[in-house]
Specification:
Blueprint (H helix, E strand, L loop, with lengths): L4 H24 L6 H26 L1 H31 L7 H29 L3 H17 L6 H5 L2 H10 L12 E4 L2 E4 L2 H24 L5 H13 L1 H8 L2 H4 L3 H22 L20 H29 L1
Helix pairs in contact: 1-9, 2-3, 2-10, 3-8, 3-9, 3-12, 3-13, 4-8, 4-9, 5-12, 7-8, 12-13
């Protein structure tokens, strides 16, 4: 069963309006949100996502709802991993905590635009070339390996913005100090950019790198561009509040990357299995479909995603508590 076009358009309009209202609220009242405020916002967005899943179930059936929830949870887990890099960027450029909300919101908007472009491109490619699932699957398995064994850790992600930062410093005038959350300021009568422009550039590059991982991952769960986009939208909407809610807890999630790596590897295998079912490449099985390839259902994917995150989070918190006791 297909979703009504009116529902797709209406829900996208409502979600964008909520995102714009959130942005205007930050611009009007920049502040450091309390734990209570952040918790209420996160609960609001999670509840909104579950209501949306219920509407999908009612309008189009459990398969659509299951695909959305699995995709949303996958993107949410990857977004939490994205927060680690955001924390490093904020610290690297000494962004005043009061204005970190604006930086995060701009980062979320950049991420949404980039993912929207990638989703449209991915949907068009999949429509024409079913064999691209082989590439997506192999890329996710490779990404999972890098996630599980990152070498230099998240610091390497920050170093990837170094070229952009050097380029900006060479090509434009940048002041030494922030001027609230402004991008432009006046120093001794001369118009200059503030360091905020570098922060936005670093966040943008980070969003681009994470979009390269997240879009193939969710296309392994559903091929519906609408579900892919809304799952990404819901995952990003609560990211700003989650940043302040987790705070120091991020450092305690020491095994989270293993859970994310397992999810990416699982989806990568699922994509390759799907490509084998749809196989049209003449040098694989003579161009015929491979019937013995496993057919992994949406609900199996959902169970694996939830279980992986529960195990990784629980193991992280137990290990953190043990380390504190020893300390």
């Amino acid at each position: 069963m297909d979703l009504p076009v009116a529902f797709e358009i209406g829900s996208l309009v409502v979600l964008v309006l909520i995102l714009v209202a959130d942005l205007l609220l930050i611009l009007k009242r920049p502040h450091i949100p309390s734990a209570r405020e952040s918790t209420l916002w996160v609960v609001f967005y999670v509840t909104l996502a579950l209501i949306f899943a219920g509407l999908l179930w009612w309008l189009a059936g459990g398969e659509y709802a299951g695909q959305f929830v699995a995709g949303w949870l996958t993107e949410y887990s990857l977004s939490i991993d994205n927060l680690f890099v955001f924390v490093l960027i904020m610290g690297q450029f000494a962004v005043p905590r009061r204005y970190q909300q604006e930086v995060l919101m701009v980062g979320i908007i950049i991420a949404l635009v980039l993912r929207g472009v990638f989703i449209l491109a991915g949907a068009a490619i999949i429509e024409q070339f079913s064999w691209v699932f082989y590439l997506f699957g192999a890329f996710l398995i490779y990404t999972a390996w890098k996630q599980a064994f990152p070498g230099g850790g998240h610091d390497d992600d920050v170093k990837q913005e170094a070229f952009i930062v050097r380029l900006l410093r060479r090509t434009i005038d940048i002041s030494d100090h922030y001027d609230e959350a402004k991008i432009r300021t006046v120093v001794d009568g001369k118009r200059m950019f503030t360091p905020m422009i570098i922060v936005f550039a670093a966040i943008g590059v980070t969003d681009l790198l994470f979009a390269l991982d997240s879009i193939p991952a969710i296309f392994g769960i559903t091929q519906s561009p609408f579900i892919v986009f809304t799952a990404n939208l819901f995952a990003l909407m609560g990211l700003r509040q989650l940043y302040f809610l987790l705070g120091g807890l991020l450092d305690r999630l020491k095994y989270l990357h293993y859970g994310i790596a397992f999810i990416l590897a699982f989806i990568g295998i699922k994509l390759i299995a799907h490509a084998m079912h749809e196989n049209e490449l003449p040098f694989i099985n003579g161009g015929r479909h491979i019937e013995w390839a496993p057919d992994i259902s949406t609900w199996t994917s959902l169970a694996v995603i939830i279980l992986s995150m529960i195990v990784a989070t629980t193991a992280s918190l137990v290990a953190s508590a043990r380390d504190r006791q020893r300390g």
